[in-house]
Design goal:
- By secondary structure, this protein is mostly beta strands.
- The protein contains 4 helices and 18 strands.
- The strands form 4 sheets. The protein has a 7-stranded mixed β-sheet.
Length: 291
């Protein structure tokens, strides 16, 4: 596997593996998945110095956290949990460097380990064709929490499709944490968003846990009805979800610069065609399978 390296800031108390170019291959056994948790960094922290170049950082203590970042009051609509248990986990961050406009992203897609090292796979996204961007420099980053380890880390750049689908089951009048279930389905993994609040569907503010499985986005896209695909960036509601505390189904499709959102009443209503009712059932069954 060719490993494309980022500059690495070592902020933990052990040595990282050498930043090799992938030419000196060592057989370190089979890779196994490392479970990690997405961390909504910007809700509670900011960088003391913005990274102009691509880089990575691994933080292993509160002292190092305070050295590199400034903690501030929650800036997200939903109060996020800024707690990191450094006795059990590390914070891993990856930076894309300075970009000339908005519309750029860098995303940690999966993490695996073998007998020698931890491999952090990531990809970068540039503005999509037709995307509305502003001429403001940006500094994209992504942060996750991983279990503590004594292994060094390799950062491996991959190519991924950034298009995705978000599906959810909501009931805005239910106070139980079990009423709101939301998942982002990509072609490289599926994210389970944690503790999603009613009517707060900016998913960048939530922690998440991933399941590494390829091709799920492409497979689910085949079941989307033509009338939803034809919306192309609009938002539509079928029925009146929550009018009688019955809740509904949420569907979000992001393709390049186009974001389409649909809300479907759990009750079958007159404005739901046969295709919409079947699609609603497909989404409900998919959510059940992902629990």
């Amino acid at each position: 596997m060719k490993k494309i390296m980022l500059g690495l800031f070592v902020a933990f108390g052990f040595s990282a593996c050498s930043l090799n170019d992938g030419n000196n291959y060592v057989d370190c056994g089979a890779n196994t998945v490392v479970n990690f948790t997405g961390f909504p960094f910007s809700c509670n922290y900011s960088e003391k110095t913005q990274q102009n170049n691509s880089a990575a950082i691994v933080i292993g203590s509160e002292e190092k956290m305070n050295e590199y970042f400034t903690k501030h009051n929650n800036s997200c609509p939903v109060a996020s949990d800024p707690t990191i248990d450094f006795t059990k986990e590390y914070l891993v961050g990856i930076f894309a460097g300075a970009k000339p406009t908005t519309g750029y992203k860098i995303v940690i897609s999966s993490i695996v380990e073998n007998n020698c090292e931890i491999v952090v796979n990531y990809y970068e996204k540039a503005p999509a064709a037709g995307e509305n961007v502003t001429q403001t420099p940006t500094y994209p980053y992504d942060f996750v929490l991983i279990p503590k380890t004594t292994k060094g880390m390799i950062f491996n750049k991959t190519n991924e499709n950034a298009d995705n689908i978000v599906i959810g089951s909501f009931n805005n009048q239910c106070l139980s944490s079990d009423c709101q279930k939301f998942y982002q389905i990509n072609d490289y993994n599926t994210l389970k968003f944690l503790n999603v609040a009613a009517n707060q569907y900016d998913f960048g503010q939530y922690r998440y846990t991933p399941t590494i499985k390829r091709g799920e986005y492409t497979l689910l896209l085949k079941s989307v009805p033509a009338e939803i695909l034809a919306l192309k960036g609009q938002t539509k509601t079928y029925g009146t979800p929550d009018a009688a505390d019955q809740g509904g189904i949420y569907f979000e499709l992001r393709q390049g610069a186009v974001l389409t959102k649909v809300y479907i009443d759990n009750n079958d209503t007159e404005d739901q065609s046969t295709e919409i009712k079947l699609f609603k059932k497909t989404i409900q069954e998919k959510i059940t399978s992902l629990k």
